Each structure stands twice: as C-alpha cells, then as structure tokens.
C-alpha cells in the first residue's frame, strides 16, 4: 500500500504504471487514480490498518461487495 501525498495522504493499492504515472486504487475497490511517483510513500502500518478497517466497515454496511 502507498500513500498519495498530493491528495491529502490518500491510501491506495498499487495497480500498475501508465507512462510517467503510477495507478492506485482505494483498498478493496473503487475508482483508480493516477499519481506521479514523487508524491508517493509507503503506507505506515497504522495507515494500512485504518484503510482495511474502513473497507471492512463499508462491507458490513453493504456498501462494498
């Protein structure tokens, strides 16, 4: 997991490279976005846990499959 510092420390999973950009996707599902690699850093354990917990909570509410 990586943190996009250009979008308020948004956490995403690496999906691939598209030209000069890296593609990320929210943890679990959601719309991908592209970011320059210079704005990325590895997610801290706390940030990874927060992202996974948010996904599990959304799943329990039926918002995510």
Structural description of this entry:
- This protein has a five-stranded antiparallel sheet with strand order 4-3-2-1-5.
- It has one helix at 45-60, and strands at 2-4, 10-18, 21-25, 33-35, 40-42.
- The longest helix is centred in the C-terminal third of the chain and has 16 residues, at 45-60.
- It contains one helix and five strands; from the N terminus they run βββββα.
- It is 25% helix and 35% strand.
- By secondary structure, it is of the alpha+beta class.
Short synopsis of the structure:
With 65 residues, the protein is α+β, with helices and mostly antiparallel strands. It contains one helix and five strands, in the order βββββα. The two termini are 20 Å apart.
In DSSP terms (H or I, runs of 4 or more residues), the helix count works out at 1
Count of DSSP E strands? 5
Instruction: State the assembly state of the protein chains.
Output: single chain
Largest sheet, if any? 5 strands, antiparallel
Poorly predicted ranges: none
Helical fraction: 10-25%
Element order, helices and strands?
EEEEEH
Strand order, largest beta sheet: 4-3-2-1-5
The class by helix and strand makeup works out as alpha+beta
What does the average pLDDT come to?
A: 93
Roughly how many Å is the radius of gyration? Answer: 12 Å
Strand portion, in percent? 35-45%
Distance between the termini: 20 Å
Shape: globular
Keywords, please?
65 residues; five-stranded antiparallel beta sheet; 1 helix
């Amino acid at each position: 997991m990586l943190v996009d510092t250009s979008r308020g420390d948004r956490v995403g999973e690496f999906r691939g490279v598209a030209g000069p950009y890296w593609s990320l996707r929210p943890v679990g599902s959601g719309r991908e976005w592209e970011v320059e690699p210079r704005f990325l850093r590895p997610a801290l354990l706390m940030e990874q846990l927060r992202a996974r917990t948010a996904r599990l909570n959304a799943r329990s509410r039926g918002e995510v499959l």
